[in-house]
Every structure is written in C-alpha cells, then in structure tokens.
Amino acid sequence: LQNSQLVDQLRDEVAQREHEALHDALTALPNRVMFDLQTRRALAAQQEGESVAVALIDIDHFKEVNDTLGHHHGDELLAELARRLEVLAAERSLVVSRLGGDEFAFLLTTTGGVDEVSKVAADVKAVIEESVEIAEVRVDVTASVGISVTDPTAEPVDGSTMLRQADVAMYIAKHSSPATSSRPK
C-alpha cells in the first residue's frame, strides 16, 4: 500500500514538473517549448490543401505600462490578455502561447489559406486591443502582429523558420504603422 502511494506521489510530481516545463508560470498558457512542439506536430500532420499558420503578437509599448503602473500591474495586464486569448482560442480552434515577455503566438491549421489566417489575426488583434482596467486606470492596448503561412505547393518549412518569418513580419508591422501606444490613461 505504501509503495502504491509513493508511486502515485511520484507520478503527480512528474506531471507537475512536466506542466511547469511546458507552460508559462504567469498565464498558464503553453510556453515557447510547447508552442514549438505543437507547431512541429501541426506541420507533420498537415494534409493536402491545408496551410499551417504561425502568428507572433507583440504588445506595443508594454514597457511604458510596467514603468508607469509597476511590474505587478503589467503582469495583471498580461494575465488578462492571456485569458482573452484562451477564450478566443477555444472558439476558433487555435493554439495560443505566451512566448515570453509581452509576446504571444498562435498556431492555426486551415484550408482557408491566407485570407482565413488574416481574418483570425485581425480578430486576435481586436480582442487584445480592447481596453483593460488595471489599478483603476484604463489602459488602451495596441499590438503588432506578424504572420507566417505555409504554401501547400512549396517546399515544406520547419517551425523555427515559420516563427522567424512571423517575427520579421511583426517587426515590419510594428515599424511601418503609426501605432498608438499601450499607455495608461
């Protein structure tokens, strides 16, 4: 009986450690390691006519939120954004992750191509950009999104390449649009 209890305890500890290794501590979303695993699985399971999309989302001027309201309230903002993304992910069959800092990502497999991915990215951006009240202050959030979509007729790419492409696209989006900032009002 004691051995059985010990084995159960060890299994629980292993499961807890695995969860911690694959999920973000602040938001409980999958982390970068888990996102990479999920992207690899999606690419390996990609069917004919399907596209796999990776989008990288960066919160604009997040440092100003931390500097103005403090890191604790910046964490509250990130947790609220993660909650919103989880709701949208459940509705849209997306994989959403927090890659670190103020960067989130989503993964989508679709037969709708770039048009469908653009629509989903716009919906994700809209959900993120809804005002948030933190510490009795309204924070207007803006975000920059970069997308990488596989071409079903081209050579296969790996998840790292897709994430790099999305990062470049996000950087271009961040620096080419006159974004308002995520600033306390």
Mean pLDDT: 89
**H/I helix tally:** 6
What percent of the residues sit in helical stretches (DSSP H or I)? 40-55%
Return the structural class: alpha+beta
Low-pLDDT runs of 5+ residues are: 179-185
* Overall outline: flat
- Sheet with the most strands, sense and barrel status: 4 strands, antiparallel
Cross-sheet strand order for the largest sheet? 2-3-1-6
Span of the ends, CA to CA: 60 Å
Beta percentage is 15-25%
> What is the β-strand count?
7
Order of helices and strands: HHEHHEEHEEEHE
Rg measurement, Å: 18 Å
Give an overview of the whole structure:
By secondary structure, the protein is α+β, with helices and mostly antiparallel strands. 53% of the residues lie in helices and 21% in strands. The chain contains 6 helices and 7 strands, in the order ααβααββαβββαβ. The strands form 2 sheets. A 4-stranded antiparallel β-sheet has the order 2-3-1-6, sandwiched between helices. It has a 3-stranded antiparallel β-sheet with strand order 4-5-7, with helices on one face. Strand 2 (95-100) and strand 3 (103-110) form a beta hairpin. Helix 4 (71-92) packs antiparallel against helix 5 (113-128). The radius of gyration is 18 Å and the shape is flat. 30% of the residues are buried. Residues 179-185 have low confidence and may be disordered.
